[in-house]
Design goal:
single chain; RNase III domain-containing protein; RNase_III_sf; Ribonuclease iii, N-terminal Endonuclease Domain, Chain A
């Protein structure tokens, strides 16, 4: 098994989703840099949608939903989740990158894997990843 295949397999294990399109998860776990920023935009929007839909189902007010979103979807919290789930074990770092992944890059990678799951398997796959990451 190649190192790329190992990183993808580890990401899929952590995320609870087997990607049909392995190129999507591979793109999502590139860091640091701009290679996963388009997926991060999709993931940011998807996470917002999930949180607001969940808030609606739970009968939360608009204010409570906004507070919940702000607590869960901020970069600091997303980076904490990425670190707790040991994303560094499968993030493909560039040869010039040394040391830990920074907060912003880690948060973007968390958003990118959410976006990749959405594109790969629509809302259901994205929801699985969000729940596996504890972002609810």
């Amino acid at each position: 098994m190649t190192s790329q295949a190992k990183m993808i397999a580890e990401a899929e294990r952590v995320l609870g989703h087997m990607f049909l399109n392995k190129d999507l998860i591979w793109e999502a776990i590139q860091a640091p840099g701009r290679t996963n920023e388009r997926l991060a935009l999709v993931g940011d929007a998807g996470l917002r949608l999930y949180l607001h839909q969940d808030s609606y189902k739970r009968g939360l007010t608009k204010g409570a939903a906004s507070i919940l979103h702000d607590q869960i979807a901020n970069n600091s919290h997303l980076a904490e989740v990425g670190n707790a789930k040991q994303f560094s074990a499968f993030i493909n770092k560039t040869f010039t990158h040394t040391g830990a992944i920074g907060e912003k890059a880690m948060a973007a990678t968390v958003e990118a894997v959410i976006g990749a799951a959405y594109i790969d398997g629509e809302f259901e796959a994205m929801e699985t990843v969000i729940l596996c990451l504890g972002l609810h």
